[in-house]
Amino acid sequence: MISLTRLSGSVFVLNADLVERVDATPDTVVTLVDGTKYVVTESLEEICELVVDYRGAIVARSAALDAERRSQASGRRNRGTGPVRLAAVTPDEGGER
Of 11, 2, 5, whose CA–CA distance to 42 is shortest? Predict the structure, then answer.
């Protein structure tokens, strides 16, 4: 989500994934994929930067979560101090299983 300001001064957050385009006419108009339009005080360049930062934060958070999950999975596999060793199996003297 990105935070934007209406011309009236009220602040709202917008799902950046729904932005279809941003026009500078000279007011900045954000058009969503469903046709909804918002006139905002931020410039076209500011909105582009907000969207890039938002998407970059998602990628960074996803990478951090993946690294954490890999670390946790590795910890579950190697709980001991060394490699896991299996005990030798010897055949039963009586030949029975």
Answer: 5
CB 18 within 8 A of CB 4: no
Write out the chain's pLDDT in tens, 97 residues.
999 999 999 999 999 999 999 999 999 999 999 999 999 999 999 999 999 999 999 999 888 887 888 888 776 665 555 566 677 777 776 655 5
Residues in the chain: 97
- Number of folded domains that form the chain: 1
Residue where the block lists tokens 């999975």:
73
| Cβ-Cβ contacts under 8 Å for 13 (sequence gap 6 or more) | 1, 2, 3, 4
Amino acid at 40: V
30: in domain: yes
The answer as to whether 84 is a domain residue is no
